[in-house]
Amino acid sequence: MNKKTIGIIVGSLRRDSFSKKVAQYVADLLEEQFVVTFVDISDLALFNQDMESDPPQEWLRLRQEVKAADAVLFVTPEYNRSMPAVLKNALDVGSRPYTDNAWNGKPAAAIGVSPGSIGAFGAVNHLHQSAACVGLLMMSQPEAYLGAIMAALGDTGVEGEKVQGILQRFVDAFAAWVNRLAS
């Protein structure tokens, strides 16, 4: 039996970002059951519908990678009580053209990561709003808001037992979500 593919999209471009460390930890948990790929959104030009007649290669690459995935997992920080602009841009780029929306019908979930106490709730909340509009089937429970993340990160990545437990429960639920919904 072929393994399903999970595309992980990290909403932070920072080289040593907390979200990337969490995403790598989650990828390691998922790899036993799924093929895991990271979808790079760092090089996407800002969406401009005028560019659709001759879309940049980076847009076409994103759309192909999203279409090739059976499901999508977002790991994101929060910027000014919302998702990072680069993540919203990726949603916009992947949703076009309207007749060929790469996101449509894919199971998905989101993990919020923050050094602050509310764990990127605002970012995940806004992500859910946009995700519904582009047809992603977002897992609503359990939620994963990882606040004060710096205390759970060490030299080898996610080391805090509490956060590891939260992520394991989240991954178990996400795996079940993907296996139920992905064709």
Written description of the protein model:
By secondary structure, this protein is an alpha/beta fold. The protein has helices at 18-30, 57-68, 85-94, 121-133, 161-181; strands spanning 5-10, 35-38, 71-76, 107-113, 137-138, 144-146, 153-154, 157-158. It is built from five helices and eight strands; from the N terminus they run E-H-E-H-E-H-E-H-E-E-E-E-H. A hairpin with a 2-residue loop joins strand 7 (153-154) and strand 8. The longest helix is centred in the last third of the chain and has 21 residues, at 161-181. The two termini are 13 Å apart.
As a whole number of angstroms, the C-alpha radius of gyration is 16 Å
* Unreliable residue stretches: none
Structural class: alpha/beta
Task: Tell me the number of structural domains.
Answer: 1
Q: Could you give the distance between the termini?
A: 13 Å
Helix content: 25-40%
SSE topology string? EHEHEHEHEEEEH
User: Within the CATH hierarchy, at the fold level, what is the topology?
Assistant: Rossmann fold
Mean pLDDT: 96
In CATH, the homologous superfamily goes by the name Flavodoxin domain
